[in-house]
Write a structure and sequence with these properties.
By secondary structure, this protein is α+β, with helices and mostly antiparallel strands. Helices cover about 55% and strands about 15% of the residues. It contains 5 helices and 7 strands; from the N terminus they run H-E-H-H-E-E-E-E-H-E-E-H. The strands form 2 sheets. A 4-stranded antiparallel sheet has the order 1-2-3-4, sandwiched between helices. Strands 5-6-7 form a 3-stranded antiparallel sheet. A hairpin with a 2-residue loop joins strand 2 and strand 3. The protein is elongated.
Length: about 180
């Protein structure tokens, strides 16, 4: 009886491992395709900034695949499945960030900042820029707050104050941000 349970446990582990790997490979294929489709609809690049390839992407990919593999040797439990799903989620997050970060910039139809993109047609307002200059001092200079129809309030976090200022200037040139703000 004990061998039968152990055999069932191993087959369950194998099924979970295979499912996780299928999802992870799907993520590695789907995210770049989705990014390519997004860029086709973005229009021409007007201003580029902060592009970097990061070793974090490769490290997290390897660790995520290893995490799912190593945990599959444990007895199947709720926690082992959660740990494997954390590996899948970690891969999704780093893959999305790595694919979009390469394309950071101001485009004709949208803005890409790290793992976030905002279409200009979706922007309602820039809440912090609507405040007086004195009130704006209470907010970080490297963050551009955007209120959108579909995503609500989005904080676009830049690597520096200068980078954020340059993007704001480009958005003013495109008349996305009006001069009276």
């Amino acid at each position: 009886m004990k061998n039968k349970i152990k055999g069932q446990n191993m087959s369950t582990n194998l099924i979970i491992l295979i499912l996780c790997y299928i999802v992870m490979i799907g993520i590695l294929i789907f995210i770049p395709q989705n990014t390519k489709k997004l860029l086709q609809n973005a229009g021409n690049l007007i201003f580029s900034y902060g592009r970097s390839t990061n070793i974090r992407f490769y490290t997290v990919c390897i660790v995520a695949f290893l995490l799912v593999f190593i945990v599959s040797f444990q007895n199947v439990s709720f926690y082992s499945v959660i740990i494997q799903l954390c590996g899948v989620l970690g891969l999704f997050i780093v893959c999305k960030e790595a694919n979009l970060k390469k394309h950071n910039g101001v485009y004709e139809k949208l803005l890409i900042v790290n793992s976030t993109f905002v279409e200009y047609s979706d922007i309602v307002t820039f809440p912090v820029l609507d405040l007086s200059k004195e009130e704006q001092e209470n907010y970080p200079k490297n963050v551009l707050v955007v209120a959108t129809e579909s995503k609500g309030k989005v904080d676009l976090i830049f690597s520096s104050d200068e980078e954020c200022s340059l993007v704001i200037e480009k958005l003013k040139e495109l008349k996305i941000i009006t001069e009276d703000l």
